[in-house]
């Protein structure tokens, strides 16, 4: 199965949360047996769940393993670029920046090259790799790896963050409730974000509009505790 077809299947499932084999076959112009084989392979990677006649993405079912980075990276990708373009306007030369392991923060990296002499501290493994591509001065928080979302968490990560006084923090979460609470399904990642917020002069939530009004079981903080919410 090609990576391009993987991506198209996941994009459709992320946007609709479910799809039938017939719908996927028509959308991708391939046979239904080919789609069934594709779905079987994606299920083995724990990216989807097959059901009678099709497949679904269930966030609650995936909550124990977090939302895999492969899926998160596909969600609202255009929106995340728009958000990154707005966020970079808040960054100054010589800033020290916290970035969490979210794909929203990851999308900001190419825009950082427009600034001089930045230092970025992150708990995102993919984020570390991307920062290295752009030759940006980077510090890893260290910590224990959550492989499914490529995030470093735990006491070592907390200690690194607490030792640094940052100018600005950018991060994301799964939902911004109608009451204004930032919510997620990953307490360990939320704890890292909480430390970043506390140790930064300014902190901003990167939030695609489809997350607004959604509530998950773990609260990070209230939006009034931040300096702003950046959305598309």
Describe what this molecule looks like in 3D:
Helix content is 39%, strand content 23%. With 232 residues, the chain is of the alpha/beta class. The strands form 4 sheets. It has a 6-stranded parallel β-sheet with strand order 6-5-4-9-12-14, sandwiched between helices. Strands 1-3-2 form a 3-stranded antiparallel β-sheet.
- Based on secondary structure, the structural category is alpha/beta
| Tally of contiguous helical segments | 11
- Report the mean per-residue pLDDT as an integer: 90
Strand order of the largest sheet: 6-5-4-9-12-14
How many strands appear in the DSSP assignment?
Answer: 14
C-alpha Rg, in Å? 18 Å
How would a textbook summarize the main sheet?
6 strands, parallel
C-alpha termini separation: 33 Å
H/E topology pattern: HEHHEEHHHEHHEHEEEHEEEHEEE
* Portion of residues within helices: 25-40%
The backbone outline, from C-alpha atoms, is: elongated
Uncertain residue segments: none
Approximately how much beta-strand content do the residues carry? 15-25%
């Amino acid at each position: 199965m090609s990576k391009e077809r993987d991506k198209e299947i996941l994009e459709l499932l992320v946007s609709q949360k479910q799809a039938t084999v017939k719908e996927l076959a028509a959308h991708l112009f391939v046979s239904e047996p080919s789609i069934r084989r594709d779905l079987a392979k994606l299920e083995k990677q724990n990216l989807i769940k097959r059901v009678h006649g099709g497949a679904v993405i269930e966030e609650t079912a995936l909550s124990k393993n977090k939302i895999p980075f492969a899926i998160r990276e596909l969600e609202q990708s255009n929106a995340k670029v728009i958000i990154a373009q707005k966020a970079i306007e808040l960054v100054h030369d010589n800033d020290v920046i916290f970035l969490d392991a979210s794909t929203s923060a990851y999308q900001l990296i190419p825009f950082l090259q427009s600034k001089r002499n930045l230092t970025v501290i992150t708990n995102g493994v993919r984020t570390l790799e991307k920062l290295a591509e752009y030759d940006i001065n980077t510090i890893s928080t260290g910590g224990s790896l959550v492989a499914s979302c490529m995030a470093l968490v735990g006491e070592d990560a907390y200690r690194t963050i607490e030792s640094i006084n940052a100018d600005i923090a950018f991060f994301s979460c799964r939902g911004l409730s109608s009451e204004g609470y930032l919510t997620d399904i990953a307490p360990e990642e939320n704890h890292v974000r909480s430390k970043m917020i506390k140790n930064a002069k300014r902190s901003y939530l990167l939030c695609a509009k489809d997350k607004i009004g959604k509530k998950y079981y773990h609260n990070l903080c209230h939006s009034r505790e931040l300096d702003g919410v950046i959305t598309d």
